[in-house]
Amino acid sequence: MSLKAGIVGLPNVGKSTLFNAVVENGKAQAANFPFCTIEPNVGIVTVPDPRLSVLSGLSKSQKSVPASIEFVDIAGLVKGASQGEGLGNKFLSHIREVDSILQVVRCFEDNDIVHVNGKVNPKSDIDVINLELVFSDLDQIEKRLEKLKKSKSKDSQTKVKEEAERSALESIQKALMDGKPARSVSLTDLEKDSIRQLCLLTMKPVIYVANVAESELADPSDNPHVKEVINLASELQSGMVTVSAQVEAELTELPPEERTEFLKSLGVDESGLGNLIRATYSLLGLRTYFTSGEKETKAWTIHAGMTAPQAAGVIHSDFEKGFIRAETVAYNDFVAAGSLAAAREKGLEKPRSRSFVAMTN
Ligand SMILES: Nc1ncnc2c1ncn2[C@@H]1O[C@H](COP(=O)(O)OP(=O)(O)OP(=O)(O)O)[C@@H](O)[C@H]1O
Ligand SMILES: [Mg+2]
Asked: Of 95, 121, 181, 325, which one's alpha carbon is 20 to 30 angstroms from that of 336?
C-alpha cells in the first residue's frame, strides 16, 4: 500500500526541481523550458518522524524503517489540456492515478525563466489548472451518466448502487458547473463508494505549494504572490506550504555539514521539505503506528479512522485472523514507561490517545 501524491502545475514552474529535492536521488530532468517533463517521474519519500528514533533507542533496535509515500512528478498542464491542448488528456490521466495533488504555484519573479502566460500570476495559474480538472471531471461524468441511463440491470442490489451513483454524479455535476470541486459536495457513504472507481480529479485533496525565490524564503509573506496563494488556499479549503524549489535543489548538492550554514545565510532555520512531506502525509489522511522490537522499529502508514485492531490487521495478517492479540500502547505512555513490559505492568497497554505504538515483540 503506497499512497501517491502528484506534483501538478503549469509548465516550467519548478515541479521537477522540487521533485528532485524531495526524492532522494531523484533524477527528473529539470530545465528552463516548458514541457520539459513528459513521462511522469516516480520516487519514494520517507516521512521524517522523531518518534521513530526514540522508539528505536528504547527497544535497542538494529534497524529502523520510516513510513513512506510516493511522489509523482507530472507533465505541465496548460489551458485547454482537457481538450487535448499542450500535452493534453494523457497527462490528466496521470493525475487520475494519484491520491492527492500538490499544485506548484510560481511565486518567484525571474525574467530569465519563461512563464507560459508571460506573467507571474498565482490566481490565474491556479484557476487555469482547476478549470482543466473541472472540465475533465465534467466530461467523465457526462459519459458515465449516459452509460447509466442505458443500463438494463434488473438485480435490485445493482439498481440501488446505480441509483446512488446517478444521484452523486448529478450533485457533483451541479457543483462543477458552479466552479466548485467534487470534494465540496457532501455525499453519503454509499454514494462515495459508488463513484470511487471514476477517480474524479477534483475529489482529490490539494495542497498549494508556493514556490518562492531564494531571497524571499526568510519572509515569504512579504511577497504579494504568496499572500494571494494563502488567501486562495483558504477560500478553496485546501492546504498551503511555501518552499523554494531552487534552494531545496541547491541544498541537496551540498555536503550535510554545509547545509545549516547555507540556510542560516538565507535567514531560515531548516529546509522546507520536512514540512511539505508531513503536510502531504496528513493530507492523505494517514497516521503512523509503530512496531518496535530488537530486530527493527518500523513506522506503518495507516488510514486515519482505523481502530487499533484494524491497524494491527494491516501490520500483521495474523492479528486479523485473531491468532495474536493486538497489544497497543500510546506512544507517550510507552516512552514514559520505558518498555512494553513496564507499560503492561502499569496497565497502560490499551489505546488511549490518538497515536499508538503497536508492539510485536
Ligand atoms: N524557486 C525558484 N527560483 C528560481 N528558479 C526556479 C525556482 N524553482 C524552479 N526554478 C527554475 O525554473 C526552471 C523550470 O524548472 P522545472 O524544470 O523544475 O519546471 P517544471 O515545472 O518541472 O517544468 P515542465 O512542466 O516543463 O516539466 C528551472 O530552470 C529551475 O531551475
Ligand atoms: Mg518537469
From this structure: 325
